[in-house]
Amino acid sequence: VQVGDGGRVRVAGEPGAAGKLFRDVAGLWPWGRGRILLPSDGDIFCMPQRPYVPLGTLGDAVCYPTDPLTCNTETIHDALRHTGLGTLIPRLAERDNWEQSLPTESLQRLGFARLLIHRPRWIFLEEATSALDTEAKTAMMTLLRNALPNASIVTFSQDPVLAPFHQRHFALLRADHVTRLTEQRTAGIAPA
After folding, report:
1. Cα 71 to chain center, whole Å?
2. Rounded CA gap, 76 and 80, in Å?
3. Cα–Cα distance for residue pair 164/138, rounded to 1 Å
4. Cα gap 60→58, rounded to integer Å
5. How far is 158 from 154, CA to CA, in rounded Å?
6. CB 140, CB 83: distance < 8 Å
C-alpha cells in the first residue's frame, strides 16, 4: 500500500492485526514479516487509542513530545478550544497525573489538540476516537481535515463513522493462518 501526499486511508478488519500493524509503523512491534517504508519528507505523529501523557503540568501534556516552552501560548489555547477542552486553559500550569485525572474522552481530544499544535505531515491514528460519541468523532475528523488539509492520514479503526473521512479503505482479513491487507471499494471523503 502506498499513501501519497494528502492521502486519507482507513484500515479496518482483524482488530489484533490492525493494532500490530499500527505498532509496526510506530516502531514498537519487531515481529512479523514484510517491509514498511516511512516517509522522510515531514514529521510523523502516531496517536494510539490512549495517548501517552507525561507527568507534570497540563502544558507539558498538551505540548508533548516537545518542550512546552517552545509551544506558542495562543496556539495551545486555540488547540484546546477547537478540541472542546477550552475549560482546561486556566489549568495549563497545574501539575497532576493527567493520564489518571482526565477521562479517556478528554485524553483523546488532547491527542487531537497535539496534532493542531505540532501540525505533522504524516498522521497515524489507532482507534483515536473510540471514547467519543458520533458527533464528537465527526467534529474531530472534520477539524483535522480542515486544519491540516495537506497531511496524510492513516487511520486504524473499525468504526464506520470514520469511513467517509477517507479516500481509500483497506481490510485486514485472516484466512489459512495468514492475515492479508485488501483494498475495499466504499464511499469517499465526507463533504465539507
Report:
1. 20
2. 6
3. 10
4. 5
5. 13
6. yes
At 44-101, the pLDDT tens digits run: 888 989 999 999 999 999 999 998 888 999 999 999 999 999 999 999 999 999 999 9
- Measured CA to CA, the distance from residue 127 to residue 82 in angstroms comes to 20
Query: Collapsing DSSP states into helix, strand and coil, what is residue 156?
Result: strand
Q: Copy the grid coordinates of residue 107.
A: 485524553
State pLDDT tens for residues 134-188: 999 999 999 999 999 999 998 989 899 999 999 999 887 777 777 777 788 764 4
Judging by beta carbons within 10 Å of its beta carbon (0-12, 13-18, 19+), is residue 33 exposed, middle or buried?
exposed
Whether 163 and 186 have beta carbons less than 8 Å apart is answered as yes
Question: pTM to 2 decimals?
Answer: 0.87
CA distance 168 to 11: 9
**CA-CA distance, 32 to 16, in Å (whole number)?**
13
The cell numbers describing 187, all together, are: 464511499
Rg (the chain; Cα; Å): 17
2 band by pLDDT with thresholds 50, 70 and 90: confident
